Structures are given as structure tokens and as C-alpha cells.
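Notes continue from the previous slide.

Worked example: a multi-chain complex. Inputs as given:
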Amino acid sequence: MRIAVVLRQVPDLVEPLEVAASGDALDFEQASFLLNESDDHALEQAILLKEAVGATVIVVALDFGDVDNTLYTAAAKGADRIIKIPWDEDRPPSTSSLAAMLASVIKTLEADLVLVGCQAHHELDGSLAPELAAGLGLPYVGVIRGVQPTEDAQRVRAFKEFPGAVMAQMNVRLPAVLGILAATQAPRYVPVSRIRAAAKSTKFDEQAVAAAESESLLKVCSLSPPQALQHAEMLDGSEEAVAGRIVDILMEKGLLK
Amino acid sequence: MVEQQAVKSEAKKSSTLLEQLISAPDGESVLGCMQCGLCSGSCPLGYAMEFPPRKIVLEARSGNIDRLVSSPSVWMCVGCYTCALRCPRGIDLTDTVWPALRDRALQMGIQPPVELRVAFQNLYLYGNMLGLSPRKRLDWAKDLDVTVRDLSKEPQPVEVLWLVGCYPSYYPRNQVVTRAFARLLTAMGVRWGVLGKEEKSLGDCDRLFGEEGLFEMLVESNNKLFQQYQFEKLVLLDPHSFRALQKFYPRYGVNVPAQHYTMFLADRIEQLRALLTKPVNATVTYHDNCCVGRRCGSYEPPRALLQAIPGVKLVEMRRNREDALCCGGGGGGMWLDGHITQNGGHRLSDERVKEAAETGADILAVSCPFELSRFEDSVKLANLEGKLLVRDIIELLAESMDLNERGAA
């Protein structure tokens, strides 16, 4: 089995985000980046499948947002090949442009399975995974919470949770694109010594791709940080006084009569 | 020097656990183990371990370590150094055997408990185990009424480069102590500075937890920082970091004079005494932290500081100095309470506050950033609220110097 995994760097919300001088985008120069959480799960799922049935795991990533350490970590976890798409712009491409760029690379890989995180918090104009599936002309199932191999090498078993804790189990014919919400297990921790060793031994396969012309349907007019309009009310005083105030609030809100 | 160590680290991955132990600095002493079991008997969590220290050495010798590395015991040591102190053969179990075992487990793909995994990841990404922004390292100093020299912005020679530490920089309860120490240093006329957003953890907890690569990465990063600035000595609030600088950084060729704050202040006690004017009328008992106490044998400086405060009556817990019970937070223990209790252990801090209360003390004095939150939580669990206060020695000194912020005393 050949598995392609897409990894994206997203702005790290641990740092305060700043708006660029243009007013219509984040200031990516000031941001720090980390691997998109559901992409991390997609990688973990690929490694788990590799461990279960033997597979070649090929990571594909745009060279944006200090991606190298993330790629070395992927290599340390067990990725067999790393493809990096050069990108010199100071902001990432739109989702549809990225999907087109990734599709042009992944088409050449003859992958049986393409795993992509089903969401990323910086996606403004739609999710990457279904757009990538469309670009590849492959079927797509999204919001997957675990993938298992089957006895039929042409199929995998994918699990998807619906409201009401209903879990669907689907046998997906390959090739296909799966949008991963969570892997069968939490992404593994890999010791830093292995990442450092991978940094010395891993060679990236750089594949330049012409930026796609596809234009986003979304136009950002302006961006501003959220403003706090009110704060939580802290109740002070004795237990009786606080309890009395809580009852008053519930009655004011119409929750108690 | 770091390169040499890195080469050595790579080489040992293919060896057995016993070979790995022997190749570590001081590791050959493991061969002298006579299986007397003093280590296991004195370990405060040994009763809950499937593999207490004696059995770990036994299994390492047998060469059959699959069961050993997958046991919850691997992640139950809290780095108190009692086993190392008690060993009649002088085997440094805490600094040698446990880290080697954990390193082996990590290299074999064994996953540490999830809280610890997250803490490691945070340290790798942000330089602190709390997972907070490096840009917020100096938030404790906002609106402070003394000048904070941030050397990362204005490099200048200082007498003391104060490595503030992670909990003291970020954790709100500890920030009260941090601000008090800034006022105290200033009141003593010390010319001090901090590294601001450039500061990173020194990595001692990670070394003890077998994350050797992460520790090496931090040593390299911190060494570069130390070389950028001019200072006479480092002063630290965190005893674990002090210990790492004293014993492990030199192995990478990093030699910097460093003192834990209790040592630094005790060296200036006469100058300090003149500033301690306001009585703190309280009976105080002191908890010896494991790194400054049992590991480094420095028991008197903290006591000298407390006794210099007018009004303080110092009383001892039944287990004190080298016999002191660990708070359970060292060596990564701050992130392992859940794992330890799930596997039959208990929070050592819960036991320790009861010992403190038995003395009749009003205040449990500490000198380690982990201990404030651990003991204050335990005071609540033991129904000792209103009976036993937990205070860092710095807070008591600052109170006597009338330097505490309003409401912090």
C-alpha cells in the first residue's frame, strides 16, 4: 500500500496573533507555527497502517511556516519519503490553490490512500481534503475517526462518528482520499534524539509546482482581533450570600421561577 | 563537546540496557549492586512499583527487559534521590539507572504517560513544559515597582544573571514569589538581569525522564545564551535546574558558576539581616527540597535565612534534612500525579503536609517552585486550610523587609 499524507503548518495559537499592516490577513512574519492537529492524526494513522500491513508512507507538504522540523519529526516517526513543495510567498495559498498544487504532486505518486486532516483552523475558504479529492478525481470520506486494514488489499475500513454517538463503519474502496479527524490512537511521541538523527539523515524531495491560478471565492475585507465586551462576574462573600446571588441570577434569566 | 556526546548517544542505542548503564558516567557502579534492597525499601513509592529500583537492576542484568520497559513502574520515580543516598555501594540510581531505563523505553517506542508526553512536546516547541508563549516569559514583571533588566533587549554586564525558571515565570501563584525576589535583589543592591523571552528551561526533569535528546538540545541552546552575556554568576529559584547546571551541564563542557537562591542569600546573610526589620510572628517548619537538600547536602542555608527573620520560631518535621520526604514533584513528577495514583501510589505532598501540621507550625516554608502549588493543594485535601500556610522563604523574607505586594503576605 502506498499512502500519501498531507501535512500543513498552521499559526500556533499559543502566541497572540497579529493582523498584517494590509489589514486583510494575519501577520505571518510575527506568527509561530506548528503542525495542524488533524494532519498529525493523519500521519499517525498512516504510520499505524504501515505497522499493521506494511506500507510506504509519503509525506507531502508546502514549504511554509518553518515546516522542516515537522518533516524531520515525520521522518523520525516512520515516514519513508518527504516531498516538499517550495513556496516563497509571505502568506499561504488559498485552500483551492493549495489543493490544486498538492493534487499535481500526489497524482504522480500512484497512492492507494491519501490521508489529510479534515480541518485546519486557518482554512477560510473551505476544507482542503474534499477539494484535494476533487482535484485527484478520487472518492472522499471525511471526518474519519480511525482507519483499519481489511483482508482485501483494495479496501480499508473507516470509522465515522455521527451525532448521538452513532459510529458508522465503512469499507472504502481504494484509491480514495480520507479526511482524518482522529487516528486510531493519539499521535505518538518520538524522542528528540530521533528527530535530531532524522534531521541529519533525511533528504527532502523538493518538487516545484506552479502556483495554481484558481481564485478563492472568499474575499477578506478586513481582519481584527476580537474585542472583549463584557467579563465574567465573580461572586464574593459568604456561601449563603453567593448561593443567594446565584438563585437571583437564575431567576433574572428566567431559568428559575 | 556536545558533538562527542551526541555520537556516544547514538552508539549506545544498539547496546543492552546493562551496557547502556555501564557506559553512562558513573554507570559502572551498577555492577557493584549486591541486591540488598535498601533502595526499594527507602523509595517513598517503592511499595506501589512492580519494579522498584532493586528489581530494575536485577532485570537489567538478566537482559530481558521487555516486561520492564512496558511496566508503569518506569514512570513512577519522582527523582527524590533517597535510593541513591541509601545505597551502601554508592550507586547513583536516580541520576543513572532511571534515566537510562526511560531512555531505553522511549527508544523502543514505549509511550510515556500522556501528561508527560504533552509536557515534553511543550518543552520542545516552546522551551517550557507548561506550553506557554515564550513572549510571555516576562509577564510577571508587568507594572513591577523595580527595574527589570531584560538582557535580551539591552545586553549589559550584570553581577547576577537570574534564571527565573518556568513556573516562577508563568504560574500565577509563583509569580508572587518571583516579584518578591526581584524587589529583594533590588533592595540588597544587587545588579541583576534576566533573559526575558530568550530564557528556556534547563531541562533537568527531561534528563531524569530519559529524554536525553531534548536535554542535549536545551544544553546547546542555553550554552549559546550564556556565552552571549556577561555575568558573574547565575542564580536560580528552581533547585532542579541548579542541580542540572552543577552536575550535568559540565559533562557537555558548560561550566558556569551557579547558586540556588537560598545559597546566594545565605552568603549575604549579614547584609540581609539588617534589612529584616518587620517581625513575622509565626512558627515555621521547613521542607528540604530534594535537589538542594539530599542531592547537594545544603541543609543549613535555608534554615539560616528563616532564623534570621525576627519573630520566626523554626521547628523541624520528624523527617528532615536527608530524611525529608519528597513533595513528589521532581524529575517530571509534576506531570505524573495521575499516573502514580492510577498505579497504586499516592501524592507524597499529601503525606508531607500532615507531617508539617504535626509540628504545630503555622507556616510550611519551601524553596522550590513546584512545592507551592503541590503543598497548597494538599493543604486543602487534608482539611488544613486556615491552619497551615505554605510560603516560599522569599515571601517570608520579603514580608520582613516590607516588600511584599498588597495581599500577598
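Summary box: Chain A has one domain: 2-206. The CA atoms of residues 50 and 56 of chain A lie 7 Å apart.
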